[in-house]
Design a protein that fits this description.
The complex is a heterodimer of chains A (244) and B (91). Chain A is mostly helical and 244 residues long. Chain A has six helices and two strands. Chain A is 68% helix and 2% strand. Chain B has a domain of 63 residues. The longest helix of chain B is centred in the middle third of the chain and has 30 residues. The radius of gyration of chain B is 25 Å and the shape is rod-shaped. The chains are: A mainly alpha (244), B mainly alpha (91).
Chain lengths: 244, 91
């Protein structure tokens, strides 16, 4: 059981079973790690913004660096119109980043390696961006599905294609994060299993591989949070500035 | 330290930072990220097309036809997605 590489993704209940009608809303290890990462973010930013010194300490530096990083990312990809949505994108980025990074600690649970979690985040972004688009442009937002300079004969086909490509956004957004996290963690567990089964003589090669993989996984954890946030910015940009 | 040298040193440092930012802007993510982005965009459009075809088939009772048509429409949408994001990357 301990060598099963998929065992780490098991969701189990912590505490009593709570039922809301037919839906099971018990507190699980997944919810526990979501709560932990949310509190860790709160802690970092509380400590970081408590003492606003000119020469920052480490916590303040961390908070300020992440603030400017996300702020620059938004202004680069979505322009100045997207400034009011800074807090939303910042929360999404920090939450995904902290969930990914907490998953890198041994014996923890990676929340973002479950498709339902990433899909909920992506669906939330998708619905929110669509609502923003309709508020900003009214029914003119539907022009997004009609590219300019297309012959009328081809229009029905193109509109269907554009709608499918629009609907595929939340799926590609969620699958990307989920698949990256799950594949990486499974691979690390598999190589860890090789170390045990090959013993002290042959185990050194997979051990060095898993050291390298750990580094790669930390890179991927950061990169996927970044990609998630930057794609949110790009979708928001499409909704705010129609340029079709 | 004289004032003049401090100013020039500040200028040099600022130049270095702006150069670094310029370099960073050119390469926002590594190639593994972009490769994965492309592949998921292709696959997810196909999946969405197939799901829409399946649902429409169930509602209209035209069993194999709409799922076939929408599968290929999904493929086209996926390829268009990839072309679009490749164009965005070149900007």
């Amino acid at each position: 059981m301990a060598t099963n590489p998929m065992h780490q993704f098991e969701v189990y209940r912590i505490g009593p079973e709570i039922k809301l009608g037919a839906i099971d809303i018990s507190f699980t290890n997944a919810s526990l790690f979501m709560v932990i990462s949310s509190f860790a973010i709160l802690l970092v930013f509380n400590l970081g913004s408590k003492k606003n010194s000119v020469i920052p300490n480490k916590m303040q530096l961390l908070a300020e660096l992440s603030y400017t990083f996300v702020s620059k990312m938004i202004s680069d990809t979505a322009g100045s119109k997207a400034k009011p949505y800074f807090s939303f994108i910042f929360s999404i980025f920090m939450f995904v980043l902290f969930c990914n990074m907490f998953g890198m600690i041994p014996y923890t649970f990676t929340v973002t390696s479950h498709i339902i979690v990433t899909f909920m985040l992506a669906a939330f972004i998708f619905i929110g961006v669509t609502i923003i688009g309709f508020i900003k442009h009214g029914l003119g937002y539907l022009k997004l599905f009609v590219p300019s300079g297309v012959p009328v004969v081809l229009l029905p086909l193109i509109v269907v294609i554009e709608i499918i490509s629009y609907l595929s956004r939340p799926i590609s957004l969620s699958v990307r994060l989920f698949a990256n996290m799950m594949a990486g963690h499974t691979m690390m567990k598999v190589f860890g299993g090789f170390v045990i089964s090959l013993g002290i003589i042959g185990g050194w090669l997979p051990l060095s591989f898993s050291v390298a993989l750990t580094g790669l996984e930390i890179l991927v954890a950061f990169l996927q949070a970044y990609v998630f946030a930057i794609l949110t910015c790009i979708y928001l940009n499409d909704a705010l500035n129609l340029h079709h | 330290m004289p004032k003049q040298t401090f100013k020039t040193r500040l200028e040099i440092a600022k130049n270095k930072i702006s150069k670094k930012n310029l370099y960073n802007n050119k390469k926002p993510s590594s190639s593994i990220g972009t490769a994965f982005k492309m592949s998921t965009e292709l696959v997810s459009a196909v999946a969405v097309g197939t799901i829409i075809g399946f649902i429409l088939d169930k509602t209209f009772g035209t069993k194999p036809w709409l799922i076939l048509i929408f599968f290929f429409v999904g493929v086209v949408a996926g390829i268009m997605n990839v072309i679009k994001s490749a164009k965005n990357m070149q900007k």
